[in-house]
Structures are given as structure tokens and as C-alpha cells.
Amino acid sequence: MAHQKDRSLIAVIGDEDTVTGLLLAGVGHVDSKQKPNFIVVDAKTTLATLEDAFIEFTKRKDIGIILINQHVADDIRSLVDEYHQAFPTVLEIPSKDHPYDPAKDSVLKRVQKLFGDDQR
Fold first, then answer.
1. Which family is annotated (predicted)?
2. Long-range pairs of 70-76 with CB within 8 A, sequence gap ≥ 24
3. Are 95 and 71 in contact (CB under 8 A)?
4. pLDDT tier at 109 (50, 70, 90 boundaries)?
5. Gap between the Cα atoms of 62 and 64, Å rounded
């Protein structure tokens, strides 16, 4: 069983600008099986590819955080909303062309429910 200290990577699912910026910041990694910890999502990316990447990243024992552009998370919203594990933590982030909307964020929705603030 992997421990939290073993989860040293940040995975990224996002548009080209977001992924490029985070790779330049040093989050990129390719494991021994040639599996990267990032995926660039564009108009040609199929829904199945996006879903598979999300599921794979949530099952990897070396990933502690998954950063996903919120507009990309919207494409797989049911998967993101159903994911309730603490690790890896899924954080929705804005992109250059799509601002962040706290009303859509699955983590904030759970926090609001926890505190009885579920106002939509």
C-alpha cells in the first residue's frame, strides 16, 4: 500500500498552455513504463481518452495531486464529481481562455455540503 510520502508527483490534465506552463515549472515526469503524468487536451482529444487518463491518474500510487482545467473537468464532470478519495487530490484550475467558476468545483461543492451551505 502506498503512503502519502510516496505520492510525490503532480499530474496535469489541461489545454496546451496550461500543461506547457506546468511542464516548464518542472512537474513533468515519465515513469519506467513510459507513462507521462500529463495529457494535453485539445479539440481532437476523445472523451474516452480523457476519461482513461483521469482514471489512470487517480489509480497511480506516485501521484499526490491532479490539476485539471475546469473546462476540461466539465467534459468528464460525472467522473470528477464521483471521485471522493483524498489521494490523489483533484484540483480544478482556470485556463487562459476559461475563467474559474467556483459553483462548478466538485471540491467546493463537497465543502459546502459539509458545512450545510449547499446553496446553488
1. Belongs to the V-ATPase F subunit family.
2. 70/94, 70/95, 70/98, 70/100, 70/101, 70/104, 70/105, 71/15, 71/95, 71/97, 71/98, 72/13, 72/14, 72/15, 72/41, 73/104, 73/106, 74/104, 75/47, 75/50, 76/47, 76/50, 76/51
3. yes
4. confident
5. 7
4-114: what CATH class?
alpha beta
- Calculate mean pLDDT across residues 28-40: 90
Low-confidence winner among 14-18, 66-70, 111-115 (lowest mean pLDDT): 111-115
Residue 10 pLDDT = 95
In angstroms, the CA 70 to CA 54 distance is 13
48-62 pLDDT, tens digit per residue, is 999 999 999 999 999
Position 19: which residue type? Answer: V
Residue ranges covered by each domain of the chain: 4-114
